[in-house]
Write a structure and sequence with these properties.
35% helix, mainly alpha, two-stranded antiparallel sheet, globular
Length: 155
């Protein structure tokens, strides 16, 4: 699958393959980094100093705070989706993650729906795609929001 090769090539952070399916990690990286632009909302700032392609600079992803949340969207704050101490992205097991991606259920505020997060689009992904995203998010390093984050994400 060329998505595996491309996904592994574009992963901006070191990956931990221990106990993980390398092919799923690669496809997940492809979906997260080449298709869904998760970095655009879940990393603040998205680019490292001097690496903002929108300013004509050679792209450098902010790997220190990669996917750790902290970007404000009005009253909403992007969440930290890096692995917790148990290795679970945003502290969610696979079934909870798939439920959130399919329904928009806000785990931090039961009974409410995630706002801004494009779950109405992600719900249309295949189960294999969502599992691949989860596997990739499980393989990245845990990170903390930037000290200059626009807001502090809930976990």
């Amino acid at each position: 699958d060329p998505r595996v090769v491309q996904g592994l090539a574009i992963a901006p952070v070191p990956l931990n393959f221990s106990g993980k399916d390398r092919n799923l990690v690669g496809v997940g990286s492809y979906l997260v980094n080449a298709v869904a632009d998760c970095n655009g909302c879940h990393t603040y700032p998205s680019y490292a100093e001097g690496g903002n392609p929108f300013l004509g600079q050679p792209e450098k992803i902010n790997t220190v705070n990669y996917l750790a949340g902290g970007m404000a969207f009005g009253p909403f704050c992007s969440r930290n989706i890096t692995p917790d101490e148990a290795g679970k992205p945003a502290g969610m097991d696979l079934q909870t993650f798939i439920n959130v991606m399919r329904t928009g259920a806000d785990m931090a505020h039961p009974g409410q729906l995630l706002q801004v997060m494009p779950w109405p689009t992600f719900k249309n992904m295949t189960g294999d795609d969502l599992r691949a995203i989860y596997e990739y998010l499980s393989a990245i390093p845990s990170a903390q929001p930037s000290a200059n984050a626009q807001c502090m994400p809930e976990m």
